[in-house]
Design a protein that fits this description.
Blueprint (H helix, E strand, L loop, with lengths): L1 E6 L2 E3 L5 E9 L5 E8 L6 E10 L3 E7 L7 E6 L4 E6 L8 E9 L11 E2 L3 E5 L2
Parallel strand pairs: 2-11
Antiparallel strand pairs: 1-3, 3-8, 4-5, 4-9, 5-6, 7-8, 9-10, 9-11
Length: about 130
Amino acid sequence: QVQLVESGGGLVQPGDSLTLSCRASGRTFSNRTIGWFRQVPGEEREFVATITWADETIGFGPTYYADSVKGRFTISNDRANNIVYLRMNSLKPEDTAIYYCVFKYGFYSANGGSYNYWGQGTQVTISS
């Protein structure tokens, strides 16, 4: 089992920045992908970004971003503490959503159904 706990959501103005954190615990061994999806109530969930940890030899694999956030969002991983961060810059009203931390064994997928574990979600609201 893997447990994911998100934090860092809130209300900010357009153009502001925000950093989300996700602490993973449990069976988070090698060859895993962890990242973020988001969802607006009544709409489909949307892939945001992921980062993959391969193993001790390869280290971190590639990061992937949705086109809508590329260049504005950065995903990073504090492996020692099993924390994943999503730094969000130049926020727009359309970034408003519930952001979910996700985890899967194996490599990247943009399909939310591929992720075995989901956090409880944290609300991000961008409004003036």
